Amino acid sequence: MKHSPGLARWLEMVLAVTALVTSVSSIAIALHHGHIMQMLVQANSFPYVQGGFSDVTLEGSQVLSLDLLNRGVGPAHQESLRVKVGDHYVKSLKELFAAALGPERSVKAQEILHPIWNRVRTRFIPGGQSQPVFRMPRTAENAQLWDLLEKDEGRWNVEFCYCSVFEECWEVPSKWREPEHVKQCHRDESREFLP
Predict the structure, then answer these.
(1) Are 66 and 115 a contacting pair, CB within 8 Å?
(2) What are residue 85's DSSP bridge partners?
(3) Quick one: CA dihedral 81, 85, 88, 91, positive or negative?
(4) Which residues on adjacent β-strands are paired with residue 124?
(5) Taking the domains of the chain in order of start, what are their residue ranges?
(6) N or C: which end of the chain has fewer CB within 10 A?
(7) Alpha-carbon span 117 to 132, nearest angstrom
(8) In this predicted model, what pLDDT tens digit does every residue of 155-183 receive, in sequence order?
């Protein structure tokens, strides 16, 4: 049985086109799979940081504190932190006491409140973990000033910015607002809070 040269050439073309379509399809599927895997890794590394003031611990102890809590699954690098009392930024606990209690009481507050603070410029917060910024337990000795601070807490606000391990960044412009995606975090040293 003899095959015509035209039929053989046609079969060769069909096989070549089929191999080319299969190769292109395999590459497209691999690229799509790679994109999905990248999105999955990012989703499994997504941080979600909340920050705020509290006047009680989970155990029920009266402790005035500022904490940053990462409710996401991935680590967060907090790069900027600002605290406001009313409309004014404060850069330290000393300034916070003065803004909340007045200059006369702030000196006494520094002596008897005995705050514990985390005095670092930036913080790395693993997923599901928290980082304290400062804490002040209520004691019999400091109860009067502690109560005055606790009453003033409603005027306090915290703003911060953090990034994921993939350099995706979010800014939280207020303790009442959701994180907003930004290109990168910017520190403003004239307003940064360092307890």
Answers:
(1) no
(2) 88, 156
(3) negative
(4) 77
(5) 1-43, 49-182
(6) N
(7) 7
(8) 999 999 999 998 999 999 998 889 999 99
